[in-house]
């Protein structure tokens, strides 16, 4: 108790004098950085000076008596004084020799990071530089010592010399050289997996040169390449291509190359088309040709058929986006629990319900000609065909009465069932079955799906696996009262994505204000999470301010990705990635493979209540624009009120997943209709994505299962840290209050929405903007000026509406991304 009191006292004291603020402030970071920068520069000066003055200083240093380092009598010649001489002596003579220069270089990096000049991953740099310094210290001591002459220190320092001698005594000079080589290669492979390919080429230069001149070609190339597509769509596995080439060699295939010439000789004026069969016929004719001739002519065949897989093409084989984790193994289905799904149908229950339905409908004067019952996992659908002459609209009018008369929880009446002239009455089963995640993922539908982001959510009333593509939806709103299965639903979504997507293809941003919901995923943060550098230690975000920064960072990433799409001249992430893996985009232009990013926000209500617009605006922006660049959002809330799910959010989240909610009003907020208040809970849900809602029993997955899956993923070789999100811009910049001028530096908050409204309606009228956003004439005018500056509308033409310069929403998305990007 006493200790606690003292602690809180000292805490409040620190608060009171502002010490805490000082320590945590950006200014302190800046000045610490500045201090380190100066320190590093002085150290470098001292070290350079030591190269010339070391000789003179060394004897003083080695016979130094206490207090001498104070340099009162100017014993040291070093330009950095006695401390400079001393530091250089320790760093260069006693430790690492020349590579010791890396130490002040690292301090400079740390200083620049503290000063917010660069955002670098210091741990990564530390690790890499430490390896380089230690390795080069030993390497210099090994290879440069003989040439060091009368240098005052060994080029690799005493450390390098010691390691060299130790290893030489242990394994001899060849062993030492081998160790140095292997360490260097391992390190370079860590930096880039291309190292392995370079080594392979170096070890087999003959094959490399031979293939450079396109020696291996067969007429079957195109067909075989098709067959050789590996387990993931569209990429030819490297080994396959190598084997393929080898087979061709055995078949004396290189001679085939010559046939292009023959072909051209025969048909001088007709250019061969890719896939042309001519080369197949001619292949036999040219067997036995002279080898030199073959090599010369091959180039022409390559141009003519465009259908060749030789080594040259192999270097152009599609980039494998799983690289370097190509051996990654997806979790097995055995990690998930199986439940008994063969529970027999309770005929007594069905008959009883049948009789009640007929009785109730008859009592309202509705005659029935037929009833069909479809037994689902938790609900049975009674499909009623009304007798001739009974109007469906009459039954629709009686919906509430019928539900009341049947008086069971969870009854939902669908009148009519879409596409059929029948009425559906869903009645919950007395003994509901659990739909296991295993049964859903173990379905052909899931396993063979080509969806970009498949979410296997559960089973429909007719026992079909219900799956949707998040990439198409593209953002999802999840609501449900507490305990109705929301968290299980989110886990089912995450799990189905984990079973289909490689860590290089998908990253999550998880927001968990409750702090306990997603903590189970902390084991896969390196593999599957994206985070700001400052959150890399704990990428699952639980703090409101961090959420705001992360959302702003996602906006920035979105703008950056739009720039890349524009450069690549494509409209969507899948087209972009396709171009990227087929070498149509240059790495030097900043292109990179884009993983999908799925942002999942639990307890959205809590967030919006605390942070309001700060959260809502970036979410609405991402929701409006991010679909094309592969950023998708799922937000979940217990309280689907209009304060939380505002019109802005709702309009941009077309996918809705409603578990049981407390009231009809809540159901209307989430689904735009009633029905969700009638669900039975425990994963019973309505899914809506345009059209009519579908009743689905959500797949069940519990924490031990998730832990098992995560443990498996964690054990796989994969990324060692979360994907880094860009530092967000200053949140004040442009997203706050009304703008005072028309320049694009401080955009009006309605800028994006106004631009969209104008492009959709193709009407550049200020009064339309005024009406639509209920703003004054002056503000609408300024907004128009900003839209003009952004090139969305033309100049004012008196009282006439302005000309709209952008024809469609896609082009607008690109323009908006540029506007925001340019401001960033
Ligand atoms: N799909 C399902 N199948 C069977 N039971 C389920 C299903 N989903 C949820 N349940 C049951 O309901 C309980 C509560 O589910 P869950 O934790 O997902 O609720 P929730 O809506 O997230 O609640 P809260 O908002 O309080 O976190 C589970 O522990 C489980 O027993």
From TrEMBL:
<dbReference type="InterPro" id="IPR050206">
    <property type="entry name" value="FtsK/SpoIIIE/SftA"/>
</dbReference>
<keyword id="KW-1003">Cell membrane</keyword>
<keyword id="KW-0238">DNA-binding</keyword>
<keyword id="KW-0812">Transmembrane</keyword>
<dbReference type="InterPro" id="IPR036388">
    <property type="entry name" value="WH-like_DNA-bd_sf"/>
</dbReference>
<feature type="region of interest" description="Disordered">
    <location>
        <begin position="721"/>
        <end position="746"/>
    </location>
</feature>
<dbReference type="Pfam" id="PF01580">
    <property type="entry name" value="FtsK_SpoIIIE"/>
</dbReference>
<dbReference type="Pfam" id="PF13491">
    <property type="entry name" value="FtsK_4TM"/>
</dbReference>
<dbReference type="InterPro" id="IPR002543">
    <property type="entry name" value="FtsK_dom"/>
</dbReference>
<keyword id="KW-0067">ATP-binding</keyword>
<feature type="transmembrane region" description="Helical">
    <location>
        <begin position="30"/>
        <end position="52"/>
    </location>
</feature>
<dbReference type="InterPro" id="IPR027417">
    <property type="entry name" value="P-loop_NTPase"/>
</dbReference>
<protein>
    <submittedName>
        <fullName>DNA translocase FtsK 4TM domain-containing protein</fullName>
    </submittedName>
</protein>
<dbReference type="Pfam" id="PF17854">
    <property type="entry name" value="FtsK_alpha"/>
</dbReference>
<keyword id="KW-0159">Chromosome partition</keyword>
<keyword id="KW-1133">Transmembrane helix</keyword>
<dbReference type="InterPro" id="IPR018541">
    <property type="entry name" value="Ftsk_gamma"/>
</dbReference>
<keyword id="KW-0547">Nucleotide-binding</keyword>
<comment type="similarity">
    <text>Belongs to the FtsK/SpoIIIE/SftA family.</text>
</comment>
<feature type="binding site">
    <location>
        <begin position="480"/>
        <end position="487"/>
    </location>
    <ligand>
        <name>ATP</name>
    </ligand>
</feature>
<dbReference type="InterPro" id="IPR041027">
    <property type="entry name" value="FtsK_alpha"/>
</dbReference>
<dbReference type="InterPro" id="IPR036390">
    <property type="entry name" value="WH_DNA-bd_sf"/>
</dbReference>
<keyword id="KW-0132">Cell division</keyword>
<dbReference type="InterPro" id="IPR025199">
    <property type="entry name" value="FtsK_4TM"/>
</dbReference>
<dbReference type="Pfam" id="PF09397">
    <property type="entry name" value="FtsK_gamma"/>
</dbReference>
<keyword id="KW-0472">Membrane</keyword>
<feature type="domain" description="FtsK">
    <location>
        <begin position="462"/>
        <end position="668"/>
    </location>
</feature>
<keyword id="KW-0131">Cell cycle</keyword>
<feature type="transmembrane region" description="Helical">
    <location>
        <begin position="171"/>
        <end position="191"/>
    </location>
</feature>
<feature type="transmembrane region" description="Helical">
    <location>
        <begin position="89"/>
        <end position="110"/>
    </location>
</feature>
<feature type="transmembrane region" description="Helical">
    <location>
        <begin position="122"/>
        <end position="144"/>
    </location>
</feature>
């Amino acid at each position: 108790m006493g200790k606690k009191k003292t602690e809180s006292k000292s805490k409040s004291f620190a608060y009171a004098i502002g010490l805490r603020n000082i320590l945590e402030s950006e200014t302190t970071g800046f000045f610490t950085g500045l201090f380190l920068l100066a320190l590093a520069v002085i150290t470098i000066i001292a070290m350079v000076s030591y190269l010339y003055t070391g000789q003179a200083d060394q004897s003083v240093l080695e016979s130094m008596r206490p207090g001498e380092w104070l340099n009162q009598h100017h014993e040291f010649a070093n330009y950095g004084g006695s401390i400079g001489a001393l530091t250089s002596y320790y760093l260069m003579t006693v430790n690492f020799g020349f590579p010791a220069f890396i130490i002040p270089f690292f301090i400079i990096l740390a200083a620049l990071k503290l000063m917010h000049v660069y955002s670098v991953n210091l741990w990564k740099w530390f690790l890499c530089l430490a390896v380089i310094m230690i390795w080069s210290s030993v390497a210099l001591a090994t290879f440069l010592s003989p040439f060091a002459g009368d240098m005052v220190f060994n080029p690799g320092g005493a450390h390098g010399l010691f390691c060299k001698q130790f290893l030489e005594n242990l394994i001899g000079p060849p062993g030492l050289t081998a160790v140095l080589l292997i360490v260097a290669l391992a390190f370079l492979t860590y930096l880039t997996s291309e190292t392995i390919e370079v080594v392979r080429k170096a070890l087999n230069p003959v094959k490399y040169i031979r293939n450079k001149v396109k020696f291996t070609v067969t007429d079957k190339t195109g067909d075989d390449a098709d067959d050789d597509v590996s387990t993931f769509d569209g990429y030819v596995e490297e080994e396959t291509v190598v084997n393929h080439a080898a087979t061709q060699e055995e078949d004396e295939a290189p001679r085939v190359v010559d046939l292009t010439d023959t072909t051209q000789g025969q048909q001088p004026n007709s250019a061969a088309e890719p896939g042309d069969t001519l080369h197949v016929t001619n292949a036999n004719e040219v067997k036995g040709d002279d080898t030199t001739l073959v090599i010369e002519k091959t180039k022409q065949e390559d141009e003519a058929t465009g259908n060749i897989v030789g080594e040259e093409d192999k270097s152009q084989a599609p980039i494998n986006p799983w690289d370097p984790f190509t051996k990654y193994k997806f979790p097995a289905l055995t990690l998930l629990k199986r439940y008994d799904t063969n529970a027999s149908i309770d005929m007594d229950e069905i008959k009883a319900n049948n009789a009640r339905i007929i009785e109730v409908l008859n009592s309202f004067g509705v005659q029935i000609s037929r009833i069909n019952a479809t037994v689902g996992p938790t609900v049975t659908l009674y499909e009623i065909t009304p007798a001739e002459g009974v109007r469906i609209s009459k039954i629709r009018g009686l919906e509430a009465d019928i539900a009341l008369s049947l008086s069971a929880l969870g009854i939902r009446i669908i009148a009519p069932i879409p596409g059929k002239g029948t009425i559906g009455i869903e009645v919950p089963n007395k003994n509901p079955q659990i739909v296991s995640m295993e049964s859903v993922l173990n379905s052909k539908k899931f396993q063979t799906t080509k969806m970009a982001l498949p979410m296997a959510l559960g089973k429909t009333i007719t026992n079909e696996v219900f799956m949707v593509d998040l990439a198409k939806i593209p953002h999802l709103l999840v609501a449900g009262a507490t305990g109705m299965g929301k968290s299980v639903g989110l886990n089912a979504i995450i799990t189905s994505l984990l079973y289909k997507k490689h860590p290089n293809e998908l990253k999550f941003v998880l927001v968990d204000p409750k702090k306990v919901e997603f903590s189970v995923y902390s084991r896969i943060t390196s593999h599957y999470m994206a985070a700001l550098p400052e959150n890399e230690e704990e990428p699952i975000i639980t703090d409101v301010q961090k959420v705001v920064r992360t959302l702003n960072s996602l906006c920035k990433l979105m703008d950056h990705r739009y720039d890349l799409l524009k450069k690549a001249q494509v409209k969507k992430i899948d087209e972009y990635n396709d171009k990227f893996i087929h070498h149509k985009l240059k790495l030097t232009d900043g292109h990179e493979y884009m993983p999908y990013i799925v942002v999942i926000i639990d307890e959205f209500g809590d967030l919006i209540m605390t942070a309001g617009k700060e959260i809502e605006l970036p979410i609405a922006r991402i929701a409006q624009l991010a679909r094309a660049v592969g950023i998708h959002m799922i937000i979940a809330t217990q309280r689907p009120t209009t304060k939380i799910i505002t019109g802005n959010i709702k309009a941009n989240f077309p996918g809705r997943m409603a578990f049981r909610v407390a009231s009809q009003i809540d159901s209307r907020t989430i689904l735009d209709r009633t029905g969700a208040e009638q669900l039975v809970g425990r994963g019973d849900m309505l899914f809506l994505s345009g059209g009519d809602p579908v009743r689905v029993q959500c797949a069940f997955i519990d924490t031990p299962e998730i832990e098992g899956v995560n443990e498996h993923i964690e054990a796989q070789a994969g990324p060692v840290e979360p994907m880094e999100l860009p530092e967000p811009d200053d949140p004040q910049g442009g997203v706050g209050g009304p703008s005072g001028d028309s320049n694009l530096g401080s955009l009006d908050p309605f800028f994006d929405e106004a631009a969209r409204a104008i492009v959709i309606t193709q009407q550049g009228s200020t009064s339309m903007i005024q009406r639509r956003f209920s703003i004054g004439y002056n503000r609408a005018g300024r907004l128009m000026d900003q839209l003009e500056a952004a090139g969305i509308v033309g100049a004012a033409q008196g009282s006439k509406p302005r000309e709209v310069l952008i024809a469609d929403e896609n082009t607008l998305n690109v323009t908006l991304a540029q506007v925001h990007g340019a401001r960033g």
